[in-house]
Design brief:
Elements lengths: L3 E5 L4 H9 L4 E6 L9 H13 L3 E6 L4 H10 L4 E4 L5 H11 L3 E7 L8 H4 L5 E6 L31 E3 L8 H8 L3 E4 L4 E3 L2 E2 L1 H12 L7
Helix pairs in contact: 1-2, 1-7
Amino acid sequence: MGAQVKICGIKTPDMMEAALRAKASYVGLVFFEKSPRHVDFSTAHELAKQSRYAGVWSVALSVDPTNALLDEIITRVEPEMIQLHGTESPERVAEIAERCRRPVMKALSISDAHDFAQVGVYEEVADLLLFDAKPPKSMSNALPGGNGLAFDWSLIKGRTPKKPWMLSGGLSPDNVAQAIAATGAKMVDVSSGVESVPGEKDAELIAAFCAAAQSADETKF
């Protein structure tokens, strides 16, 4: 019962400790300078070591990364998983998986049923899929993720991807149980939904989110 949790955008040891204390299964480290959650390699290395000691996977998130950036992440941070949150093609995802020798999670932006057409090609090359909300074109300051937006969860009904998948986008302690019940998600991802201000995680919100997700009933789907 319940879902595994990924807390994305960890930047400090205190934030990491809050995620570990709440029994998150994954923690995300963001390598995207435009994001308020961006971390440098030295900080990320220490955070990844902190999570590894607790037996929790660190996930390195980047957006259309160059090979040079990927090499730095692998060498200097040593994450357990790579997350791709840009416009990476299926061919590029396969190249990155081969280069990094790590499981790869590919984020797919969703706003309507047509956006699920891309699932088939990406599940052939990615180890895990993440369904996130596609920001509207009118949102001029939108980031690739972490915008606090949700998509219509009913779009997932009846879909059975071949690969494991994670639900993201607009989740919070108040709605995550509803989201899990509506989608059958066994994994959920949160960033802005557990922040007091952009980029600053709140330990109480992390604890509340994890408790709600881990006790939710996905069998209602």
